[in-house]
Amino acid sequence: MAKKNKMKPRELREAQKKARQLKAAEINNNAAPAIAAMPAAEVIAPAAEKKKSSVKAAGMKSILVSENKMYITSFGKGNSAVLEYEVDNNDYNQTQLSSKDNSNIQLGGVNEVNITFSSKHGFESGVEINTSNPTHRSGESSPVRGDMLGLKSELEKRFFGKTFDDNIHIQLIYNILDIEKILAVYVTNIVYALNNMLGIKDSESYDDFMGYLSARNTYEVFTHPDKSNLSDKVKGNIKKSLSKFNDLLKTKRLGYFGLEEPKTKDKRVSEAYKKRVYHMLAIVGQIRQSVFHDKSNELDEYLYSFIDIIDSEYRDTLDYLVDERFDSINKGFVQGNKVNISLLIDMMKGYEADDIIRLYYDFIVLKSQKNLGFSIKKLREKMLDEYGFRFKDKQYDSVRSKMYKLMDFLLFCNYYRNDVVAGEVLVRKLRFSMTDDEKEGIYADEAAKLWGKFRNDFENIADHMNGDVIKELGKADMDFDEKIIDSEKKNASDLLYFSKMIYMLTYFLDGKEINDLLTTLISKFDNIKEFLKIMKSSAVDVECELTAGYKLFNDSQRITNELFIVKNIASMRKPAASAKLTMFRDALTILGIDDNITDDRISEILKLKEKGKGIHGLRNFITNNVIESSRFVYLIKYANAQKIREVAKNEKVVMFVLGGIPDTQIERYYKSCVEFPDMNSSLEAKRSELARMIKNIRFDDFKNVKQQAKGRENVAKERAKAVIGLYLTVMYLLVKNLVNVNARYVIAIHCLERDFGLYKEIIPELASKNLKNDYRILSQTLCELCDNGDESPNLFLKKNKRLRKCVEVDINNADSNMTRKYRNCIAHLTVVRELKEYIGDIRTVDSYFSIYHYVMQRCITKRENDTKQEEKIKYEDDLLKNHGYTKDFVKALNSPFGYNIPRFKNLSIEQLFDRNEYLTEK
């Protein structure tokens, strides 16, 4: 056994100092327990700007600690982890666990403070890299770091039924909690959007009808509550929700989500549609209850199990939605792609026709190329940029999309079927790259290799890009076995109900939201799968039996694969045709027409009931440039058409949003929107002119635009299109960024609810408390425990008396009514809904943070029948006097989050709030 390498006191102090400096980069701004999977690092390397951690670039994935052992892993295939070394924490004796062929890193010296290793394959191979030893904990008996919230043990008991002296279980748990965080945000936004679709104008009448929808109730109970055994109070709430549900159906605004109400006199068909919509909304409501309230003791409300426990009629709806999507995709798949498939069958001599159809289905429908770990498109672009100049000739313009698709398919088959190893090598090289320039170089090298292999195939594709050939192939019948597609559909649509539930959520999201949600979920489930694999390995072999509510995660590998499919088949749905009249009303309103306009007047203006050639120019113009704009749809989902028009008249706000759009984009907008642009004017003058145009936008500016225009009339039409595009973009950025700001506070509320349930298990003083009565109670109790002795498990408050006293002041500056209203305003996105009422009073608009908190504070101080008004009156006087948000008021409202000091500071101090989350137009 190796002798333990003891350091001299001075050496140890210097090493500890360096480790602290390295660890500074690890501070988690969201203040999750500080148990790092990947320590910060230092590397002897050139001072070039790095895009990623040098530790990760060198191949180290994580350092896991279990009792007196440390396990070091590297990146394997995809996101998989390779167990490289076991290190004894007592004497630092090393045992290599990986085979020679699978090993990616070489471990050097290990001492109390640092670990030294080098890469075998990639980033500066052989260069020593230092990373801090996660087992070094001055003054702590366990090699495993405790968390600052003091909740590690309770979390382990909740998820695994017992506690562990390792940092493996808690890392898996935090991946699960990250899933709940992102679902909390998106489900909150979906619930708000659905409530908002009711179109209630009077904010005082705003009613969260979604709050009373429960997947515990069948559709029969929902539509006939008096026949049930429920209490009179619950029956009353259900009746209110049923009334609002029917109102929502009448608005036709569910058509914005692509939900098409069937045109039929058959009541059974109509009722089946309503039943499916109810199921969808009730499941959304149930998820919201699961992620926004601590439901750990109610199995049927566990986020990960309720869908398998509730009535089967809900699962029938999920089956219907997924099957409908695949039927839509498969309908005419071969017919729609038969030209390409025929060309491929002719060119790919080594493949059976049925095999080509299966591969093309993977490529077109399941988009398996996106799961390779690199970009097929970028490889093709590099090949053509460097070697395939002829393929960029104008003669291919009309068939370029088809030609590139076929080229991409050949490259996909190469890595997906023929040369899988080459793809894995490319992924590894890209992972080892440190900068974007290095990545570009790797793609260029790979493209050079591919060109020699695929040059003739690309030439062959180009030779077939002939209009007559394509036309003939399109007419020809194609003989194939339809069972192939049916088999592919069956394999792809055989999803767990959790995955189907996630697919259902995508009905209510736009393309960016779908991508963000699914990318995050895939990453988290993939991480969980890897942790479980390591825990079950013979080398580590730690207990990993999940408790009842979390058994779903035993299928993390399957769910990861299924969510890839969901991501690739889900897309923002086109608005339903049945909602067209409602959409035209919203479109005309957002362009400045009074929203009280009658349906007959809308039909008259747009000639909706008239038939004839060339008379629907205005209708088509509005359809193409407003209704079919994803930004218009987003604004209707989250805002109100009339209010958006009013907010757009505020030049200060519009100028602020325009200030966040890059200068080059402003130049383009100015040139395309202004009739007589002065391109020599300053950027400030250009932004000012664009703001003036947005302020003065009127429907009359567009009513004479001709869709089939020529000459000057076409120039006017293009300018009108540009103005509408700019207007919708600016208002979208304003609303979207405020929704994003609100999301930070949604996560904080979610964590508060969760942590309160955990603390109740270990703090007797909280056992009888109800968070709804006073949202400050957790922070207040934890502060009192610190003041009364050494009893608090919360190290954030326990170790920082000065900041604890500040939190106590903020708690005292608030009251229970104030913080309850704040919580409800966050949950219902009140700032977005009330934006028009108060934004005009702001003196200076310089950040979305300041807009959000000024409007929020005006909403909070709005006079109601509160029992305590003194503090609110004081803050209201400050707001009205200063015309800007009050910093102390922000801290008082955020005092429920004071138990987690880093989060509290990040949410309360504008300079610490993450501005990188704001959107800009690119």
Count the strands?
8
Give the N-to-C terminal Cα separation.
60 Å
Radius of gyration: 30 Å
**What spatial form do the alpha-carbon principal axes imply?**
globular
In spatial order, strands of the major sheet run: 1-8-7-6
Overall mean pLDDT: 86
The biggest beta sheet is recorded as: 4 strands, antiparallel
Report on this structure.
The protein is mainly alpha-helical. It is built from 39 helices and eight strands. The strands form two sheets. Strands 1-8-7-6 form a four-stranded antiparallel sheet. Strands 2-3-4-5 form a four-stranded antiparallel sheet. A hairpin with a 3-residue loop joins strand 6 and strand 7. The longest helix is centred in the last third of the chain and has 48 residues, at 712-759. The radius of gyration is 30 Å and the shape is globular. The two termini are 60 Å apart. The model is unreliable at 1-5, 20-50 and 201-205 (pLDDT under 50).
